[in-house]
Structures are given as C-alpha cells and as structure tokens.
C-alpha cells in the first residue's frame, strides 16, 4: 500500500511526464500524468527520479478498460498504475488531497485478453481447394500469457516485465516442446499446433469481470488459452484437411445467392491404443448469432476413430443472406471499431465430446458473411442527344448502391503478388474516375471525389496499401499537390483511414474526409476540397496521376495510372448515384458533354457499399460511351 498527496503533472507544466521533473519536487507524492508521447516506463522513471512514491497514468482515449503497457525505456523504481480516461478526469480535480494505492485491491486479470493483443482475422488471401477467399483466416490460433513477468537470462532469480507477442510466443513454443517430449511421438508441426488448439481454455473474456467483460470472440483467442496438461492428456487431435489447421476458417464470404453453402473436411486422429467415439456438436460463441438463423452448421452426430488411426467427416455451413444485417464495417469512421467487427462475425466451436474424458477436443470456427449484390451492366452504350442509357440488373441478395464517376483512366497491367509471409503484395489500379460537387465544402469550395477500382481487394484501407493521387493544377505538366491515404493519428493509432492533401511531393497534409472503403473491397472513394488544391476554380483543367504503394513491407510503388485529365466542375460524363433493389433492373441515364481534350472515355460505376458477387474485380463497371 502506497500513500501520499496527489499531484497532477499538468499543474507543474508537465502533464505527460515525458520530461524530467525538478529534483525532489515530488517527494512522497503520488503523481498523476496522462498517457501519450513517451513510454509509461519513462513517465514512471521521471516521477521516481523526482521522489514520487507512485505514478498513475490516465488513459487518453475512452474505454472501460485501462490500457496495458510494455516496457519502453527508463528504469522505474516505484509502482505505476494504469487507469481509464474517465477515472483520470475524476482524479485531476482532487490534486492536493491524500491518495492511497492498494495493490491488493487491483482487479484480477486472469482469464481475460490483454487490451493491446492483436486481433484477427488476417488480411490477404486464403485459398481453399479451387476457391479463393480473401483474408479472414483465424488469428490468433492460440493464446498465452502476454502481460507478465519473465525470467532474466543469466540473472539467476531476476525477473522483469516481458509482454506482448514476444512474451506469449515463447510460451506456446515451449508448450509444443513439452508436448513433443511428453508423448514421445514424432508429431508434425501442424499436429502439435492442432493438439494445443484443440485443448485450450475457452472461457476467456475480452476484459476483466470488474470492467463488464464478455466472452472474447474467436478472433481474439482462437482455440483459447494454452493448457499444456490437457494437450498432453488428450490422445487425439483434429484439424481441417487442406489447411491442416486446428481451426475452421471460412473467411469473408460474399453471400449473393440464397442459400450460400461452404464445406470443410475435418480429420480426427487417434494416437492411443483404444478406439474413441466422439459426439459432434457445432456450437455458437454468442447466442444472438445463433438466434438470427443466418448461419447454420451441419455435421454428423458422431464419429468413431480406431486405435492409432484417422477418420474424417464433413461439416457444411449454410448462409441465408436474407437474414444478414447491413454490413457494419468500413475503413473510415468505423475502421477501429472492435464492436462493429464482432457484429460482422459469426463464430463458435465444433465440439468433439468423448464422454467428458481427457480426449475431448474443440475446433474454433469463424465466418464473416456479407449480404451482397450481383449487378450486370453493358460495357458500352451509344449516346443520342447528349444522353446515353445503361440498364443495370441486380441478380444478388442485397440492394446495390451505385456511385457514378466520369471514367478518366484505365490500366490493364496486373502484377503478381507473393505467397504468405513473403511480404510481396500487388494492388493494381484498374479504373479511375472523378466527379465534383460545387460549393459542398463551402461557398466557392468544390468537393472533388476520386473513385478507384483495383484488380485486387484489400482487407482494410490502412495497410498494406497506400493510394496516392497527384494533381497538376497549373497545366505545366508538373504536379503541384498530392493526396494520400493514411491512418488517422499514425500507425495503429485509430484504425480509421483518411485522405490527406498537401504540397507535392511531400507526404504531409491535412484531411477533411474519411476514406470511403467498405473493407475487403477493391473500391476506394477519396474526397478532398478545391481549397486544398490552392483554391483551384471551376473550369480549370487538372492533370492527375494515381499510384498505389506498399506502405507496410517495402515502401515501394506498386502500379500507377497516368496521364489523366479532367475539367473541374465540367466532367464530360455524369450520372446520378442510384440504388438497384435485389431482383430488379433500372435504367441509368448518363449525361454526355462535348469533347474537351480530356482523358474521359465513359462512366465508372462503383459498387463499394457492398461486394458485388463473390468474384474479385466484380465491384465496378466501366461503360464506354460512344
């Protein structure tokens, strides 16, 4: 128990505690500082150096769970306590009053996920047989303590904080070594992993009970928290036949047909000398998911596996898109919303019950189904009297919202990406369009939107791809301004993607709008104001170049489209945004202006409010107007 008068760092001009306090100025005090800028260990060290008896760090973002921290420098010698933003707001006005910190009253964190733990599903591609699904492979696959004390090598009995993946991964690796040693069998890596996943502790919560913790979704724990004793005690393991994972990753599914069916083959191996009979029960993690009836799993009721042999069974998932709610995710304002991600997921465990014996197994399953449209449109139309008409037909399960742009650039170049773990990605622009809305940003300030359709989907607009758009506003062939997609607040700060604009060629600028990208999409809509381009007026010819960059692995340019030219406020091809209800057709009028020496060739229709069928590259329609 530690006591002293409470002092707020802001009252002495150092609210963050990132710079040293005057020597002895905090003698015997309890220091309160705010989170941000420097590591918590530095804040605590600075407080201790000035004589503080303890340091309290108040969170700088809302949430009912105080953040956990890794070691980031400094040598704290006093207790450091993490509290919520709301608790910090309560304590600041109490500065000058006695404060007591009782470590014995700290909430029990056992059985809860560390707030900083990364959450799946993965980005990128997932292949299953002859099907291609995009991202959403279950990760993490197993959990282990990641906010704990660990031994200091060579110290004898010394310990120090050692958290995060760097702490959890060695524990799982050590568990695998113990499992190999205890069984004496020559197990393959995937068998070792599956046995650990099949026997994890599943009653894990997203936060401690004192903070109202709920069951953690599969994409936070996979098979659960590792239990090496259970893994050693079980004489069997189960995995999916093609991926050879102890989880059933159905991925992100665009459900545009009713019903949409997917299946997986589960292999069960018995390593023991006696047969095992399992009852098979697919379960949901959350009762409200099961109640929707949108996702159903069917499997045989039982399976018997002979001694030292394997058997398999098929599990079939049926998705009813008519029972799915509207897609809640996007890369913009909802980009960092974990609750929205949970709402989009359906997950649970397939339980293999051997009459409650040590051989009981479980396989986590996960799917992200999205009710999708399936729109067809002509590739070219004829204009008459300045108007062309295109018939759009929606054969999908969801209404389609169509955003129309003047098509100013196309590319046929498609590059190859690398395999998993190679750090080689490909996101190639396919179509680029533009449109403008005078006075929307303010009187005389025109809103400009750039529409992009790529050949490849991206799970989230933040990473691993950045989209850059360069603008020549003076007609001299030299780019004057550049816009770029970037995560608001910096890397891993908010999860929200914005479109910032500044002077060319720098990568600093200001943003007025979020990026419009629905996650797992090949479409982007990037919005800026003419005032961000130096107040360029209506009627000005603007040159443009669009480039995609790898902003995660290499920093290299991937592909670009140029040159492109349009006239601000007088785009040659204009069509209204429209909605196409499921099972209907609509006629879209396209207004056609006179040729003006631009690169415009027709209309670009983006369907980025939802996927358009299950086929990659099917989220846009380019219509040549003749």
Report on the structure:
This protein has three domains: 2-105, Glucose Oxidase, domain 1 (3-Layer(bba) Sandwich); 126-147 and 165-370, Immunoglobulins (Immunoglobulin-like); 375-415 and 424-625, no CATH class. The strands form eight sheets. Strands 20, 23, 24, 25, 30, 34, 36 and 37 form an eight-stranded mixed beta sheet that branches. The protein has a six-stranded antiparallel beta sheet with strand order 29-28-27-26-31-32, with no helix packed on it. A five-stranded mixed beta sheet has the order 4-3-2-1-5, sandwiched between helices. The mean pLDDT is 90. The chain is mostly beta strands and 626 residues long. Helix 1 (40-49) links the parallel strand 2 and strand 3.
What is the fold's blueprint, element by element?
Elements: E1 2-8, E2 30-34, H1 40-49, E3 54-58, E4 80-83, H2 85-91, E5 98-101, E6 126-128, E7 131-133, E8 147-151, E9 159-163, H3 165-183, H4 189-198, H5 218-221, H6 228-233, E10 236-240, E11 248-255, E12 260-270, E13 276-284, H7 287-292, E14 295-298, E15 302-305, E16 309-319, H8 338-344, E17 346-353, E18 361-371, E19 375-376, E20 380-381, E21 383-384, E22 387-394, E23 400-410, E24 429-442, E25 445-458, E26 465-472, E27 481-487, E28 497-503, E29 510-514, E30 521-529, E31 541-550, E32 557-567, E33 573-574, E34 578-580, E35 585-592, E36 602-606, E37 620-625
